[in-house]
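Good morning N.,

You mentioned wanting to compare the apo and holo forms, so I went ahead and generated the holo version with 2-OXO-4-methylpentanoic acid. This is what I fed in:
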Amino acid sequence: MDLKITKSNQLKEKPAQDKLGFGKIFTDHMFIMDYETGIGWHDPRIVPFGPFTVSPATSVFHYAQAIFEGLKAYKNPEGEIVLFRADENFKRMNRSAKRMCIPEFDGEFVLNSLKELIKIDKDWVPSKEGTSLYIRPAIIATDEYVGIKASDHYRFFIIMCPVGAYYSAGFDPVKIWVTKDYVRAVPGGVGEAKTAGNYAASLYASEEASKKGYNQVLWLDGIEKKYIEEVGSMNIFFVIDGEIVTPKLTGSILPGITRNSVIAMAKKEGYKVREERIAIDDIINAHKNGKLDEVFGSGTAAVISPVGEIAYGDEKIVVGEGKTGKISAKFFDLLTDVQYGKKPDPFNWMIKVC
Ligand code: COI
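and this is what came out, ligand included:
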């Protein structure tokens, strides 16, 4: 397939790098590719960023047959632009595609197209500390049909935005609320796919968390409501008595690429890492016994986010006096030093764009 490029003749003004926030400002161009049963993925192109004109009958609006990814590009001290583990994002996207009956695509071709897109919009990659270019690939079902079936048409698109911290608290500890009433995913469901509906289903509880003064929801398993799964936009890690513990991937948890990276880094640093089912009661007990050293989340958008407080019913766990712990800070530095090219990349995670 040939990638067709049409450049914009109306470039937008770039935002100030100290006022980026997250996800509201978009670069000048985007990638698009379409699919039709019998033809396959076709017509890959880079075009000026702009709206799609679609029928109100478009199937994704009704049945949420949609998947997405989140990854980032960084500017290193040499002024090069690099991607973090982008190949893994496209592998995971293909796994999500399979689960959602969306046709799989050539991950290598899309990664190369993304590199071309970034080269065209390279002046949008911010360089200020803590900033990056957030990349959002997505596939939506585009049949004009209100019956329920897997679509025969799809649109793949990639849009990009220069970003700062995901949470309004910046990289300060976040407060999370454990819901006893709602669940995010159940065994056999779509919890491990990065599909739009998982996030729509989380909004009601997120609103409740927000009204109570918490940043995000910590989800428990969908059957017993006993075992910890993940937080709204990140996977979760506990440091208990010096060991690192994270919920094991049971099929209803998003297999985070940052999660996988933290585990690899922790093992390399000599920490004992356990991936296992973790009951919320065990965390409460660890805290009562003075063994809950730290809690932090991991995600592309969230990076490493220390957790300062967890609320569960009448229990309120204040972790490390609500301040960022040493191990959370260490992982933040280990990860971001590699991502921003400040330190060597022992795992060969970084992919040079230009
Ligand atoms: C990411 O971390 O990239 C995600 O996709 C989470 C999203 C809900 C912001």
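The chain has eight helices and 18 strands.

Happy to go through it together on a call whenever suits you.

Best,
F.
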